[in-house]
Amino acid sequence: MLVESDPHQTRIAVLEDDRLTEIFVERKRHLGLVGNVYKGRVTRVLPGMQAAFVDMGLERDAFLYVSDVVDNVEAVEDLDLARQAVSDLSSTEQASIDELLRAGQEIIVQVVKDPLPNKGARVSTHVTLPGRYLVLLPTVRHFGVSRRIEGEDERTRLLELLEGLPPASGGLIVRTVGEGKGGEEFEADIEYLNGLWSRVRERATKVSAPTLLHRDHDLALRVVRDVVSRDFSVLWVDGEETYERIVEFLDEVQPALVSRVKLYRQDESLFDRFDIESQIEAALKSKVWLKSGGYIVINPTEALVAIDVNTGRFVGQRNLEDTVLKTNLEAVKEIVRQIRLRDLGGILVIDLIDMIEQEHRDQVFALLEEELHKDRAKTKVLSISEFGLVEITRKRSRSNLERLLTQPCPHCSGSGRIQSLATICLKIRGEILRTIGAGTGSELLLRVHPEVAGALQGEERAILSEIERTVGGQILLQSDPELHQENFNLTEV
Q1: Tens-place pLDDT, residues 118-166
Q2: Cα four-point dihedral sign 250, 251, 257, 262
Q3: How many angstroms separate the CA atoms of 73 and 61, rounded?
Q4: Which end of the chain is more exposed for a tag (fewer CB within 10 A), N or C?
Q5: Sequence-separated (6 or more) residues with CB below 8 Å from residue 466
Q6: CA 423 vs CA 64, 274, 416, 432, 433: distances in Å
Q7: pTM
């Protein structure tokens, strides 16, 4: 793990086999909200959507689903992060939102999903507070164990240990780092978490909504808390202040890992040293080349993310089926890496190259499941269809890499394409003939983007000559780089 911090932002990179697999970015002016606890005020209750809007003092009201309000939830034992422990109820068990909430009501909520440019944050009344080894669920009576603790004997031991501990004010989940720990460590965690929840509730009684009641750790400590484990060989930190805070934090949470934290002191930046910048740039492109010469294309849409696999320059050595298998196997590993790196969420559809032999399909699917097992996000994958399609659902709570580092193109408005120069020139022709008319003898000033001006003076010169003949006057071209390429301005001189 590489941690690079400056006065403007903190960036954290996770590398596996020296390749970037995850990137976390937090700008000082745009801090993430996930994990923060607020006292909010219900502004609108929508029975038709079984949801409500909550004012938390942010730019947009937060969105609260009915399933995040009801008292009892499904018992789930296989999630590491606390906030994922609250599962939707079946429709038969759900109370109506207008029976649970009313406009003007003040409630305690926690952010479970950061706001997007056109959407407010998503919140839940089921608060989850992570500690060293445990996660406290103050509003849910449930005991669980992280799914990453796989040994059945250890899972049974941990559950029995939880049930014998002094009761917490709600439920508890053992985090991955709790594997092998005993009652003493857990009791200390319970005491700390109960105290934290008590302070949150006490503050809530003294303030009026909307108010922030509890802020989660900053990015550096949050990622160290939730991600760092014994699997990490080294944690490089660029920045002495951040280094000292991480060491102090780990000394309390996981003392055995303190020796793996190293302060980076070289003149070359940490991210440049490990070639992180170029890998981030590549992750913002739609096409990703594979070592074999094949490639994958990643196209996010409004409803889903489409991922296409192609053989490209790879022609293989033996036969077509062998070439297809090798390309799909290589593509699957890179696809999962890109999913994690870009933090793609929602519905993902992978269009693999068609494989005839069932054995090859099984081989590719087994590798896909193996790679997805490395992903900390909750995923669900369906088997390969007869058309070679694989559907995956992946849950995420923060903005993906594309939203975080880019903005919509002012020319294409996010579509990825704009009208061709020939199309724009013909559009100008039609507009002039429609508004000015023939034989007016007018001299016209046409203000266009420099690319369009170049086309009208070059390959599309015939269009400009026709307009001048039809109008009976001269067209004066003026280049304006501030104009959108598809826009133009016409005035009579």
Answers
A1: 789 999 999 999 888 889 998 888 888 988 788 889 999 999 888 888 7
A2: positive
A3: 25
A4: C
A5: 429
A6: 46, 45, 17, 14, 16
A7: 0.77
